[in-house]
Amino acid sequence: MASQKVPQATAERLPLYYRTLQRLVAIGKTRISSSEFGSIVQIDSTTIRKDFSYFGALGRKGYGYDTQRLMEFLKKILYQDELSKVILIGAGHLGTALLNHNFQKNNNTKIVRAYDVDPSKVGKEISGTEVHPMNELVTDDNSDITAAILTVPSAHAQEAAEMAIASGIHGFLNFSPTRLVLPADVYVRHVDMTVELQALIYFLNHSMEERKSE
Amino acid sequence: MASQKVPQATAERLPLYYRTLQRLVAIGKTRISSSEFGSIVQIDSTTIRKDFSYFGALGRKGYGYDTQRLMEFLKKILYQDELSKVILIGAGHLGTALLNHNFQKNNNTKIVRAYDVDPSKVGKEISGTEVHPMNELVTDDNSDITAAILTVPSAHAQEAAEMAIASGIHGFLNFSPTRLVLPADVYVRHVDMTVELQALIYFLNHSMEERKSE
Predict the structure, then answer these.
(1) B124 Cβ under 8 Å from any chain A Cβ
(2) What ipTM was estimated for this complex?
(3) Residue B178's Cα: distance from chain center in Å?
């Protein structure tokens, strides 16, 4: 697949395109233009055409995109045709919210185990997922696990990540604001609430200024 | 300020740059090269130089960036020199995690009120923030509120957003997977856990394939 040339920004938009296409197919929409698709996902149609162009001729001029075909293509590209198992480290409020969220509903990602230090949580299930004691993380065989979701307090993020790496994990979705110092072959994706909120405030203030100066 | 030409992708990286610079200044680092800065934030130095170039000559060739000056500049650009008040709608697990997170610690954003339908939560405080009954959302004067964080279950997201707009809100950080249908002058920023996780899995799988084919 010619996917090595795909820019990171494009790759990051693919899951959103995929989910939107799933919905369009579900309501019986068989084809869509890039501009209509763009207005649904709230992304410029030029960007959308550019994004899809990295994967060859997915659409036809004057016809648009075949929603079913495009959805199947993205499903494959995003490895959604196979089950990805992940573990969750830290079953506090955020971890519990993610367990309740139930990734399986719309895709093939499943949280198979959670880990926590709290004895009152260990051995129990949260939304059907069992909570294991944190010290088992180092001894558990996680070789079939694609990634770990890290939702421990900041002060414990580095230590928890190192324990997970020792057990075979090489990818993290990190919700703590801490930048982790990890081996170069470990991939970390940050979700930072403060950054998201600051970005929102930036866009709000700038769009207000633009309106005022019109 | 020449910020209207700033691409969205650049604007989205500014909060991360700002926070990293705060840390560098705190540890007494007075200047930094774009390549060193890039290795810290894990972003290509070419991208960093391009991002900063939108705001004029912030660095000097052969010298790099003055961390203090750059931090102060970004503080202003990101409106972090003034307090932004936000409200939180939905004090479930995710909402509680965000209230515990305490945005104020590293920046000037404060959750001033939370709203929930659960009578067992209403009237109480979570991490110092009072929980109001949801029906007060429509009658409360939210004209001094910059944005609302939406952490209600998907089925209630549209309704809650409409109530917030009626009370004066025009910006949302939406954590529900629902795409909201709102007036054009309302700005919505989505944080989608499924999309983040799929993007992580995409990058992990592709980097593994690249390693295998080496």
Answers:
(1) no
(2) 0.73
(3) 19
**A187 in contact with B, Cβ within 8 Å:** yes
Domains and CATH numbers, chain B: 8-77 (1.10.10.10), 84-194 (3.40.50.720)
Long-range contacts of A28-33 (CB under 8 A, 24+ apart): A29/A67, A30/A66, A30/A67, A30/A68, A31/A63, A31/A64, A31/A65, A31/A66, A31/A67, A32/A64, A32/A65, A32/A67, A33/A64, A33/A65
Contacts of A195 in chain B (CB under 8 A): 15-16, 19
Q: Does B199 contact A179 at a Cβ distance shorter than 8 Å?
A: no
Residues 69-88 (B) with a CB less than 8 A from some CB of A = 77-80, 84, 86
- By CA distance, what is B147's nearest residue in A? A201
Predicted TM-score (pTM) above 0.80: no
Q: What is the DSSP letter of B56?
A: S
Task: Count CB neighbours of A26 within 10 A.
Answer: 10
C-beta atoms of A16 and B195 within 8 A: yes
Say which amino acid occupies B130. E
Q: What is the pLDDT of residues B137-185, one digit of tens each?
A: 999 888 899 899 999 988 999 999 999 999 999 999 998 877 788 998 8
The pLDDT tens digits of the residues spanning B91-125 come to 999 999 888 876 555 567 889 999 999 999 999 99
Q: Which residue has the tokens 């580095």?
A: A158
DSSP state of A187: E
Say yes or no: B15 contacts chain A, CB-CB below 8 A.
yes
